[in-house]
Fold:
Amino acid sequence: MAAFPLARKLRAGETVYSAWTTLASPLLVEALAREGFAAVNLDSQHGMWEMSSIIAGIGAVRAGGASPLVRVPLEDFAMVSRALDLGAEAIIAPMINTGTDARRFAAAAKYPPLGERSWGPVRAMMLQGQTPPTDYLREANDGTLTMAMIETPSALNNADEIAATPGIDCLFVGPYDLATSLSAGKAQDITAPEVERAVDAICAAATKAGKIPGIYCRDAVRALQMAKRGFRFIAVASDLGIVREGGAAILKALK
Structure:
């Protein structure tokens, strides 16, 4: 694989579909990569991924021919640079609600002069096939992506400021938290009119700033709809959902 393939595809204007995983299984993420997903996200915010499994999982995704991403826990900016050092090509950070949040995120993810990331990407350089440190350093700020999750009314109101923050590469919609917060905790209807308007506004804010619009979708039907509406990084389904739905389909056929 070439160095930083995810960033290269997205910066070239391609639409990228990513798998989403929570079960902390390196074998499973490699299988998803080998099936043809261009990227696979390891969710350590709500999923079971922790440091040792993330190390193995990132390597497994690369072995399967895809780009590894990590969603870090809430406000865990220390883990941002740690996951990048371990070879993640992108970081999804939850609840980026303000310009200040965005600047903290970018500072942890980008090297000077854009940010304050500390040097030490030994595993990342191995996975990227880059031996001279200067090669990785020269390409890392463009090659590793920061995806700021927009999932609250505050984030929606500040979407233009977040998108304009130097070092932020993508606005990533968390539709279920967005639906929950916009309804004041009364519903998770991601197709409610106010949620759909918010989704389009976030996409527009990213596009206006020259950043990548991203979103999570529960299934392929929704993912294709979002691609038509302008989103270019789209996470689809989840490993647990795939297993459960596949098992349910088999059992239904057996009855």
